[in-house]
Amino acid sequence: xxxxxxxxxxxxxxxxxxxxxxxxxxxxxxxxxxxxxxxxxxxxxxxxxxxxxxxxxxxxxxxxxxxxxxxxxxxxxxxx
Amino acid sequence: xxxxxxxxxxxxxxxxxxxxxxxxxxxxxxxxxxxxxxxxxxxxxxxxxxxxxxxxxxxxxxxxxxxxxxxxxxxxxxxxxxxxxxxxxxxxxxxxxxxxxxxxxxxxxxxxxxxxxxxxxxxxxxxxxxxxxxxxxxxxxxxxxxxxxxxxxxxxxxxxxxxxxxxxxxxxxxxxxxxxxxxxxxxxxxxxxxxxxxxxxxxxxxxxxxxxxxxxxxxxxxxxxxxxxxxxxxxxxxxxxxxxxxxxxxxxxxxxxxxxxxxxxxxxxxxxxxxxxxxxxxxxxxxxxxxxxxxxxxxxxxxxxxxxxxxxxxxxxxxxxxxxxxxxxxxxxxxxxxxxxxxxxxxxxxxxxxxxxxxxxxxxxxxxxxxxxxxxxxxx
Lengths: 80, 380
Hints:
Number of domains of chain B: 2
Strand content of chain A: 25-35%
CATH class of the largest domain in chain B: Alpha Beta
CATH architecture of chain A: 2-Layer Sandwich
CATH superfamily of chain A: TusA-like domain
Strand content of chain B: 15-25%
Strand order of the largest sheet of chain B: 6-7-8-9-10-11-12
CATH superfamily of the largest domain in chain B: Ribonuclease Z/Hydroxyacylglutathione hydrolase-like
CATH class of chain A: Alpha Beta
Number of helices of chain B: 14
Largest interface: A-B, 16 and 19 residues
Number of strands of chain B: 18
Oligomer: heterodimer
Distance between the termini of chain A: 24 Å
CATH topology of chain A: Translation Initiation Factor IF3
Number of helices of chain A: 2
Structural class of chain A: alpha+beta
Structural class of chain B: alpha/beta
Helix content of chain B: 25-40%
Strand order of the largest sheet of chain A: 1-2-4-3
Helix content of chain A: 25-40%
Largest sheet of chain A: 4 strands, mixed
Radius of gyration of chain B: 22 Å
Shape of chain B: globular
Shape of chain A: globular
């Protein structure tokens, strides 16, 4: 959990392989209001470039991403 | 109608047989920009990232022309199948997705025979995903390999088919751009690794050092492999002459360039070595010598049989801008004017190739993916 970002919804996408993390984040972001933030936790290294590509395509914004040995966390604000 | 599977090997065969199809790469645009499928002949390829199909299905489907044989690739198989199913639902009828994903293309080895004598055969293992070449020299039941890649199953299957055993692997130098298969072959089969010691000090596997003018033979008959130290790309860089007719040149001589001497962070000193090797050793070889390069930059370098080889005489003509330089400082200027950054993973690959760092298979595949950056110039 990031200290400075208020998370409205968390998606556990650990263990999922392409394309499911993006399919689920695409669906999950639509379940919060514009301006709200979701946290998505993945273990797929492909999401490091796929999530930013998805954000560009969908028009949402990745506020922050964090990576440690086991997982990658994205904080994404719904913009549209 | 469903989405059929195909393999990287199938894709290579379609590319070399000029099959008509549309290759749809659904990786994100960054990955696609970094590394894409290449073949010897023009073919149709488009990039529509799978996340676009997820977000904007209709618009993305409209980007894919109808009535084509669609062959879809992605990073790891799942997304190509996913997109394939969307396209089938929109009326596409001939849709297939690549098994395993782009890394299988990256690892694919395609052997082609370069030459044969009474008691030997010489094969080039083209690696279209890396634009690199390794070599196999076969005599009776023995096979020597030069610069094997990490897809050792492919060499083993080839050796089995030929009724051979891999007995020795020679390294021309410590590679920075791909993970060597020699340590893995040694672990699997107990093969002898032969390397220039200058590049492999402190390596964590057993090796036999090779020195200028050493000769190696098969147990019975066959050609002689003669060692020629050709430093410059690295201090240890070594070429192997096969019966004085072929030179396995590693990253010393390329058909369209020469191996860059700036990867080790000592461009000036290594340029001097390279210049000396070029003027004193390479130019002293017979022009009829057939060069077997460690890399190519472009499929245009292949001959009509799609083998990457050329006579030294012709290579000197093609690269007159390099081989014509007679002054060391002019040579260094040329090197400097062509210098460009190297991929950040090269440092770690060097460590792996000395056995000093271990990575799991998935990380190895990720690091090993992508075209080489070894030439001193994009085109001489």
